[in-house]
Amino acid sequence: MLDIFKMKQNRIELIIVFKKEIELQNARQILDNAGVEYRKGMDSSKGKVYFYNTGPKFIVSFKTEKAKNDFRSMSENLSEVHEIYSPDWSIRKD
Prior knowledge:
Layout: H1 4-9, E1 12-18, H2 24-34, E2 37-40, H3 48-52, E3 57-62, H4 65-75, E4 81-85
Antiparallel strand pairs: 1-3, 1-4, 2-3
């Protein structure tokens, strides 16, 4: 039997959360310009107040830890970004 949790843990991913005032198309353009793979969504361990007080949220996937670290370093300084963090798929909420 496949263990979905273990499969998710083996992925190299970050969650990037944009500020509330950032439009979805602008957030996507920033990620496209960075040349990363991403999908809409976020780590579900954050609460509803957080969800409604922030902007577009994406799960960004990487092939290597170096690529992940490089992206994190570059993105943390962008004024459009609310926060970047590693997902914790072991926490279930909702």
